[in-house]
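Let us work through a complete example step by step.
Step 1: write down the sequence.
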Amino acid sequence: MLKDWEKPERPSDEEIEERLSKAREALATKQTAMKEQKLPVLVVLDGWGTAGKGSVLGRIIRNIDPRFFQVETMDRKTEDEKRKPFLYRYFIRIPEAGKYKFLDGSWMDEAVGDYIHGRLKRSEYKKYVESICRFERQLTDQGYLVLKFFFHIGRKEQKKRIEGLLADKNTGWRVSGDDLWQNKNYAKYKEVYDQYMTATNLPAAPWHLVDAKHKKWAELQVLEILIEGIDHALAVRSGGNADNAHTSSDMEADVMADMKFAKIMPIPKLSEIPLDKALSEEEYHKELDECQSRLKELHNILYRKKIPVIIAYEGWDAAGKGGNIKRITGALDPRGFEVHPIASPEPHEKARHYLWRFWNRLPRTGHIAIFDRTWYGRVMVERLEGFCSENDWRSAYREINEFEKELSDWGAIVIKFWVQIDKDVQLQRFTDRQNTPGKQWKITEEDWRNREKWDQYETAVNEMLQKTNTTYAPWVILESNDKKYARIKALKTVIEAIEKRI
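Step 2: predict the structure and record it as tokens.
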């Protein structure tokens, strides 16, 4: 893109001033419509060092109510961010619905910089680029407006600016060693930037090249593109661009075509799984002691080798997830794990991509995160209760497989349990909870309502299992009519997965 870029003709100073005045006023009026339509806007400012991103950004945000935007400078990673997946620090910074988030620097800086400096192998860099494309597509699929700007200046102009900043002791600090190295290796950077932008120039999140030689002209280019993007996004949300709407069949075809990377494995339907497996009390306690002892040893090795583990639990109400989790955590150092009980999303979570709250709960390397209910709520309860559109839950299969692929590529062990019981056992456990004072807190009206939809849920679960049973994040069915059997199977599954990795 940089190689073929034709520099736009710069208007006269008078025209720039006139158009700037109109653009600033127009941007100031957009906030009400953005808030009403719940439009989240993510603005990414990338480009050459000393190209003026910061000064242009400073001018743009003067036209926006400060309650509705945030600015983040994406400097070097914190120690905590270094122990999380590549995209973690970007995903957790996405804006709420109806608000702006401006990023000074982004995933482009990190990926290209690490690659050019040899911190990433070519194969690793390629995976980063693929992850970035999926990330940006996930955001735009969920209604985010993603605007990416690259501030472009020539090598001589960059050198001139660097020298000017260094000549003044009050501005010299703004020139980094990376800026100097970049100018020295300008041609190499330009080549990689060009390849990167070509690979990530997505239809819904294209690159906008900004002629950054003159500050006001650069500001005008960004403002007018920003306004045009917001207007278009608002028109789509209000039904002004129905031609772009996907039908359910279109979405299904798109999702299946894009899931070739996932390597789906066959898995039996729930009705085909025998639930007669059981353990005696003596067998159970003997195996429990052995498994917990081994898992305790393995937890220390995980920490030393900095391997993260993510254990996800889904299953029928009263299937025994809580007791199962308790037997696993009973073997772990409490400083090295966290259990996340997932309930209905809070308002600030609803205002973002549905995966946002799970990215925020990922473990550090060497630690274990256990999820009691998970991101699969999107294709179960949200699907059946109408909390999201059909296109939303259909596209979620792909997004979830991509999410788990990110975790696996990061180096995490991903273990997913479906805790299975039959309808009669559930009724027996519901009745026991209702009739036992110490257990009544475990049963709610919602549990009874969900039970009435057993067949609908079973259909949804079967589809979920079939579309997300991947080689890197397979499902394990825990036959839990006998809780003791399910607990030991879960422990053995975790132990086997860890031993295989180490």
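Step 3: interpret the result. Confidence is low (pLDDT under 50) at residues 241-246.
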